Amino acid sequence: MKYLDFDLVIEPVGDGFSARVFNSPGGQASADFAAPFSDLEIENFLLRVGRTRHAVRRIESPEMVSAKLFGGRLFDKVFAGDVRGCLRSSLDEANRQGVGLRVRLHLGKAPTLADLPWEFLYNASMNRFLGLSVETPVVRYLELPERIRPLTVAPPLSVLMMISSPTDFPQLDVKRESAKMDEALSDLEQRGLVKVERQENATLAELQRRLRQGQYHIFHFIGHGGFDEQQQDGVLILEDPEERGRRVSAQFIGTLLHDHRPLRLAVLNACEGARASRADPFAGTAQSLVQQGIPAVIAMQFEVTDEAAICFTREFYAAIATGYPVDAALAEARKAIFAEVSEIEWGTPVLYMRAPDGLIFEMEQVNESDRRLLQITSLMTAARTAFAANDEATAVDKLKQVLALDAAHADASALLRDIARQKELAELYDRARAKIDAGQFADALDPLHRLQSLDRGYRDVAALVAMAEKAIAQKSDADARVRGLEALRRDAAASMTEESWDEAVEQWQKVVASAPDDHDARAQLSEARRQQELARLYARGLSHYELRHWREALAEFHQVHRIRNPYKDVADLVSRIDREMRREEEKQAPSRPVPPPPAPHAAPTSPAQQTGPPRVVVRAGGGQQKPVIIKPPAAKPARAGWFVMGGVMGAAVVVGLIVVALIVIGVIYDNLETSNSSPQTLSDLGSGLTPAPQPAPAPVEKTPAAPVAPVDPNEMISASPALGKQLKQVVLNADNLEIQAYQTMNPTLLQSAYTGKVLAKHVQDMTALATAGLFAVNRLADSRWGPITVSRDGQRAMVEVTETWASDFHPIAAPQQCSFHIHEHQVPQTVLMQRAGQGWMIYELRQPEEDLQPAPCH
């Protein structure tokens, strides 16, 4: 490669500077300019582009944008006015002659600007960095009186490589760089163009011995470097005999290298090897070596990554060995760094030169095979550059040309395979993204897994796989819930068809719990509960019917009809019961007058006969719950005198009966207060609350309850599953007896379940209802069980349960009518019971007070 020179000298003028072209194809020109940057701006730029970088390929990284802004501003300041015109004319002339234009910067008279990264000069009109093109290399030219002549070299070029890694400094990857350099130069070494000797004992004594014993054309240093602010000189970190670091000034090393006449080039692969003083243009490591007589020095102006250093070594030596001028060889290395490693690190190497034409070696004529090697090297560089720019077509074309020259070229074949692989990876990635965007996560997993098998770290494949698997799992869970819900619905529907109402209620409850917004399921649950209640009432009615308890059976069947009419054969059963009741009353006719056929319940008084203060009624089984106040309607005046008389006489009779009943009940209640159970007295009480004649219930055979001791929670333990089930059934049986007792106003039904104050409280509640002329129809809608515990001796038990009750209150004189209603409400309670023979008796109910508001019946 041949070049024309464009010599530009920078000189201070007043408070600014002058850019003067004194030698160029386009003539001479000059332009004044102010300092292009403040110290703070320079420092910020160096911090941005000078920190360690990694090979991340982007369309335009923030660092590249900063480099263009900095380089463009520097170019516009220096190449202004006539200087820019001169540069344009010089480029035109170089193009006309088919050669390059070497931009030689003379910065010796302006040391304050020597530390700027001039390699980033950027011509925005051409969208090109000057130093990144082999057509316009940028050289920092140092003028010295001693003239340099090219050294004629017969291949191979001899390179002395010193590797310095002191134990007390951060360890560099010098072994890896050395191995990569072997790999990069293996072809050149095999052809006899380059020979590399390594000096791993990085002491000054060993360097002096090597220079004395051998002939070297290039000195290549790998290690740490820096700039001594106090001494205003560059330093390299060598080793002492104990392998610890030793700071050696550039002047001292330059003295050793100057006396080695074959040496024409020094390469400093060290940090800040190119940094200079702002007062002395020769104060840096590279500048000092040039001043000591080395024709050309390449150094690093920023910290350099291992990847960039290895790439530079490979490409630079390949170009030098095939006869490239040093500046052209550096341009080739910069392009390789840009293509393969980093879009910004290509500006790290800096060339200081005092050879006028850049030729430091005159290589003897090479043979045809070496020419072909040069062509292959150039094609490979072009292929890598195109591949880095995502120009796959150009890269493939260049590589095919390489294989046409050398069918066994391993690097070309490997790069072709890599291009094909990258293309396959991109296609798989695009296909996977399309499936994910369409919500087809299962279909996306196949290309994603193939991507992972080819390149586990490719883009964000790992995150996409995790996202797809999570979405699939969520969909699977949702599908499973839907299938489970459908199965529950089918089972619930089948249970309703089979009239298994308990199972249907349980299954519809699960459906509603899983799908709270399913209105159809809620409707089905309500219907199942209604049917469950009907079935319970019907079953209890049939049981009473079979035992010939006509009034109890009639009460159950009337309740069925209030919920649904007609229902099964209830109407027929009611007719049969009426006939049976009339038949029994006719049999009793000789002993006493036969009253007219009674309603299901008779009462000493009716609501119309009650006047005076309000009556008190509580829910059946109320225990200690707060009473509900019921105000009976006021009596209406008679329309005729004889009605008045009859009413007075009737009221007197009713009042007499009530007084007698209350006296009897009071005596019984007093006895119950002092005794835990008195079933014989309660048996006598039944006819007092139900005036209609009926046989007295048979005495209940059971073991008298033992005296009750206070419950100590510390003495209670959890009941076994079997005992817990038994105790639950005790509570449910008591609830059923309670419902029947309040419908028939017959407290004797409660003798087998309750004892003591609980039984007495029920008697008191029924007395209050009878006084008000009412009876209660209670409904147990739900039971939610809590802890069930039993005493250690097995004689007492405690059951926590929350029950949901609703009640209707009817006149005894007109049982088909409903006076008022108490809606469903929850009653949390603690049920205390003790053993009685083979069973259990409930002796205490603990529950909070309730403020229940009755509502009119609908």
In words, what does this structure look like?
The protein has 858 residues and is an alpha/beta fold. The chain has 22 helices and 26 strands. It has an eleven-stranded mixed sheet with strand order 3-2-1-4-7-17-16-15-11-9-10, sandwiched between helices. Strands 21, 22, 23, 24, 25 and 26 form a six-stranded antiparallel sheet that branches. The longest helix is centred in the middle third of the chain and has 37 residues, at 461-497. The two termini are 109 Å apart.
Sheet/helix structural class: alpha/beta
Which stretches are poorly predicted, pLDDT < 50 over at least 5 residues?
A: 54-59, 277-282, 591-706
Quick one: overall form? rod-shaped
- How far is the first residue's CA from the last residue's CA? 109 Å
Beta-strand percent range = 15-25%
Strand count, sense and barrel status of the largest sheet are: 11 strands, mixed
> Order of strands in the sheet with the most strands?
3-2-1-4-7-17-16-15-11-9-10
Mean pLDDT rating? 78
Query: In DSSP terms, counting alpha (H) and pi (I) runs of 4 or more, how many helices?
Result: 22
Short description:
The protein has 858 residues and is of the alpha/beta class. The protein has 22 helices and 26 strands.
Question: Which tags fit this structure?
Answer:
alpha/beta, 11-stranded mixed β-sheet, 22 helices, 26 strands, 46% helix, 19% strand
